[in-house]
Amino acid sequence: MRQIDKYHWIIFTSVNSVEPFLDRLKIAGKAVVDLDHSQVAAIGAETSRRLSAVGVAVAVIPSRYQAEGILESLDPSVLAGKRVLIPQAAIARDVLPVKLRESGATVDVVEAYRTVAPVFDATAIRQCLQQGSIDMITFTSSSTVSNFVQLCGGGSLTALVGTAAIASIGPITAKTIEELGGRVEVMAREFTIDGLLAAMIAYFSGGKN
User: What distance in Å separates the CA atoms of residue 199 and residue 167, rounded to the nearest whole number?
Assistant: First the structure.
């Protein structure tokens, strides 16, 4: 943060990384105005809105709300020789920094936050699933899938959810669902909560998601 003015690009991969970043910026004696020299990219509308709300100008919002969308939106030749900062989750896919480095950029990836499973007794949820009283389970990230399986005692996701349909916010989460033995019946076209909600409504109304 003390050297924030040395970065040409700052890329926020989720809204969860914004608050920790802003907190650290303040601790370092910096302010949002110190980001004015940098180009900022944000994956997702919510991430962009949160940044805009505190006065950070967002230059790039990819149409696809995932790392590949950022790569499609940035010209590799422009990134050669540039310094890029990516504040993200402790456990995250490395496709973005790897590809940016291949384009000639110097990339620093910092741990902005950690996603951990809560201390929670899932007995009641398991009983509801076994009884078939839950119609759908929604997953909004890969970590929610793995944490759900962990909290419910492990095993195949299909066996855990019973008759409940599985809804995914996007293809990355869907891949994790499938890897853990589940089958996705609903997936958002736009990888946001609103997009997931629209897909769920279409599913239950008999339409296509």
Answer: 8
